[in-house]
Design a protein that fits this description.
mainly alpha, 2 domains, three-stranded antiparallel sheet, 54% helix
């Protein structure tokens, strides 16, 4: 970054994303928000903002179904929901709970990062397979490098209950037979052939369905940022309706301590 860059930006911000004219209008990616986009659904506006492209109603229903089916769990035991529930139990605001839930959703071993990695893996693998590479070799390479294939296997239980209802919706919409979703299940079959007990989880299935709608990994990331939001709000609402501090209290005796000797007061 040069001094010239800083000086050029001191009083001017050049953008193709949008701008508001107080008291007059709002421009959203080159369109008048009030005159041209006011009848859009929220999901439609979000995806137009993220991608700059328009999607048909069946595609929009699929994008919304992924949020509804895959991530809208009102269960405070779930890792990111628990953070939002804790803010409600401690009487912090819903906005803080929401923000905290989104922040912890960017973890390395769960949440946004592996979800986007699954998307990226399918995109790159599809391109390599089209160029003549063996899918088996690609799967082996991923396992040798990372010991896991993103979007496959699930902690605690073997199967993923979300796949069946999501694929049902995709089939009803005529969006269940694209090349990337086919590849997602082909990878699962190759893992089984290689002797690995790794079933597809919802990350690979959602990635395959969305990749077939033309999103890039970066666009997929922005589309997903708010996907857990209903779970955050429901968990915060639930815990804030109960007595303060009651979210999963833990007795000191239940903690296995192996540090320095306890200090006597």
């Amino acid at each position: 970054m040069s001094l010239e860059d800083l000086l050029d930006s001191e009083t001017c911000w050049e953008t193709s994303i949008g701008l508001s004219y107080p008291g007059e209008k709002v421009i959203f990616r080159g369109k008048d928000l009030f005159a041209e986009l006011s009848n859009n659904s929220w999901m439609e506006l979000l995806l137009y903002g993220v991608t700059g492209r328009k999607f048909n109603q069946d595609q929009l229903k699929l994008f919304e179904a992924i949020w509804v089916i895959c991530t809208s769990y009102p269960d405070p035991r779930i890792w990111n929901n628990r953070v939002s529930a804790l803010t409600g139990s401690s009487r912090a605001t819903g906005a803080l709970g929401y923000a905290a839930g989104i922040a912890v959703s960017e973890a390395k071993i769960y949440g946004m990062k592996p979800i986007v990695k699954s998307f990226d893996f399918l995109i790159k693998s599809k391109k390599k397979v089209d160029e003549g590479e063996s899918l088996v070799s690609l799967v082996k390479e991923e396992l040798e490098k990372y010991r896991v294939v993103p979007g496959y296997a699930r902690p605690i239980i073997k199967n993923d209950e979300r796949i069946k209802p999501l694929m049902k919706v995709a089939k009803q919409l005529g969006l269940a037979s694209g090349e990337h979703i086919k590849l997602a299940f082909d990878v699962e079959n190759k893992l089984k052939e290689l002797g690995y007990r790794m079933n597809a989880n919802i990350a690979s299935v959602a990635a395959g369905l969305v990749a077939d709608q033309g999103l890039t990994p970066r666009e997929y990331y922005y589309y997903l940022i708010n996907c857990f939001s209903v779970g955050f709000l429901m968990s915060h609402l639930d815990s804030s309706n109960k007595k303060e501090g009651l979210l999963f209290p833990l007795r000191c005796e239940a903690i296995s301590y192996s540090g320095v000797k306890k200090k006597k007061w």
